[in-house]
Design a protein that fits this description.
Radius of gyration: 22 Å
CATH architecture of the largest domain: 3-Layer(aba) Sandwich
Order of helices and strands: EHEHHEHEHEHHEHEHEHEHEHEEHH
Number of helices: 14
Oligomer: single chain
Strand order of the largest sheet: 8-7-6-9-10-11-12
Low-confidence stretches: none
CATH superfamily of the largest domain: NAD(P)-binding Rossmann-like Domain
Largest sheet: 7 strands, parallel
CATH topology of the largest domain: Rossmann fold
Distance between the termini: 29 Å
Number of domains: 2
Shape: globular
Bound molecules: (2R)-2,3-dihydroxypropanoic acid
Structural class: alpha/beta
CATH class of the largest domain: Alpha Beta
Length: 326
C-alpha cells in the first residue's frame, strides 16, 4: 500500500503541466490511456489502491469499474455531462461524482450560434463555392435571415441561459421548454416558456440542450421532426443519442426539416461512411463545444480542484451526487 492516495488520470490530451503538478503534490498518479478499462490495462494490485480518478466522458463509470477499483471514492469528470456515469452504481458504491459546470457555458453557446449562422446563411457551402471557382459561373443561391425569427430551446439550464442571451443579439424571439420553468430567465425577458409540442412547431431554429439519460435517450424522433417547419433548422450540442439519428436522417432527406447542425453524434468519432457526412443540409463539428484553449484549461482547473478537495475532505465546488457528501 502506498502512503499517499493513488489516483488514476485518463484523459484524451495531456493535462497542463502546472495542473498535473498540483495533483502530484497530493497524490501518486497512475496514467491510463483515455477510454481504457483499468482492469484491462493495470495490475490488480494497482487497481486495488486507486482512490480517485480524473477522467472525461470517454471513460465509463459503471458497476464493473467500481468492482475493479474497490477503494474508489471520487470520480472527477472533466466535463459537465456525466452520461458516462451509472449514477445508481456510483451511489451504491459511495463514489462521489464531480463535474465541471459553468466554465464552458460561453464556449458551447458560441458553437450553437456558429452552427445557426452556418445553416441559415449556408456559410460552409459558400466557402466551397468560392474555393472551387463556381462563383465565376454565377452567384451563390440566396439563403435565409435569422433576424426576427423564433429560436427554440429544448432544455433551459446554465448553457441554455447563455444561449438565450446570445441570440438576443440577433433580435430573435426565444421560446423554451424544460421540465422545470425557469422563472428568472423569464423575468429577465430572455425566453418564454411553451409546451414541448409548441416548441417544435414554432421554432425556426431548435436547439437541443438536454442531458442524456434514460428519459431523454432517442426522445426526439419522427414525431418531433414531423411537427417542425420544413424551413426549420435543428441544432444539437448536447449528446447525439438524445436524437433518433435514423429519423433525423429521414427528415433531412425528405425535407421535413431544412437542415441540422450537429456537434455531437450517437457514434463518436463519426465514421466517414455515416449518411450524415453526405447530406448537403448538415453542418458537422467534432464535439468541440467546449474545445477552446481557455475553456479546456478552466475545465481542467475545476476538475483537478474537485478531485483534490474531495479526497482532502473539503467540499468540492461541483458534485453530481452531493447527497453522498452531505
Ligand atoms: C461536456 O462537458 O459535457 C462536453 O460535452 C464535453 O464532453
Amino acid at each position: 500500500m502506498t502512503a499517499r492516495p493513488r489516483i488514476l488520470v485518463s484523459l484524451p490530451a495531456p493535462l497542463h503541466d502546472d495542473l498535473r503538478a498540483q495533483l502530484a503534490a497530493h497524490f501518486d498518479i497512475v496514467d491510463m490511456p483515455s477510454g481504457s478499462r483499468p482492469a484491462d490495462v493495470l495490475p490488480a494490485g494497482v487497481c486495488a489502491e486507486i482512490q480517485g480518478q480524473l477522467i472525461t466522458p470517454h471513460n465509463r463509470v459503471d458497476e464493473d469499474l467500481m468492482q475493479s477499483l474497490p477503494r474508489l471514492r471520487v470520480s472527477s469528470n472533466c466535463s459537465v455531462g456525466y452520461d458516462n456515469v451509472d449514477l445508481a452504481a456510483a451511489n451504491r458504491h459511495k463514489v462521489l461524482i464531480c463535474n465541471t459546470p459553468n466554465v464552458l457555458n460561453g464556449a458551447v453557446a458560441d458553437v450553437v450560434v456558429g452552427l445557426m449562422l452556418c445553416l441559415a446563411r449556408n456559410l460552409v457551402a459558400g466557402d466551397a463555392f468560392v474555393r472551387s471557382g463556381a462563383w465565376t459561373r454565377g452567384p451563390f443561391p440566396l439563403t435565409r435571415d435569422i433576424r426576427g425569427k423564433t429560436f427554440g430551446l429544448l432544455g433551459m439550464g446554465r448553457i441554455g441561459r447563455v444561449v438565450a442571451r446570445s441570440v438576443q443579439a440577433f433580435d430573435m424571439k426565444v421560446i423554451y421548454h424544460n421540465r422545470r420553468r425557469d422563472e428568472e430567465t423569464e423575468s429577465l425577458g430572455l425566453a418564454s416558456y411553451v409546451d414541448r409540442d409548441t416548441l417544435f412547431r414554432e421554432a425556426d431554429v431548435l436547439c437541443v440542450l438536454v442531458p442524456l439519460n434514460d428519459e431523454t435517450r432517442h426522445s426526439i424522433g419522427a414525431r418531433e421532426f414531423g411537427m417542425m417547419k420544413p424551413t426549420a433548422y435543428l441544432i444539437n450540442t448536447a449528446r447525439g443519442a438524445v436524437l433518433d439519428e435514423a429519423a433525423l436522417i429521414d427528415a433531412l432527406r425528405s425535407g421535413a426539416i431544412a437542415g441540422a447542425g450537429l456537434d455531437v453524434m450517437e457514434t463518436e468519432p463519426l465514421p466517414a461512411e455515416s449518411p450524415l457526412c453526405s447530406l448537403p443540409n448538415v453542418v458537422l463539428q467534432a464535439h468541440v463545444g467546449s474545445a477552446t484553449h481557455e475553456t479546456r484549461r478552466a475545465m481542467g482547473e475545476m476538475a483537478v480542484r474537485n478531485l483534490i478537495d474531495a479526497l482532502d475532505g473539503v467540499r468540492p465546488a461541483a458534485m453530481v451526487n452531493p447527497e453522498l457528501w452531505d
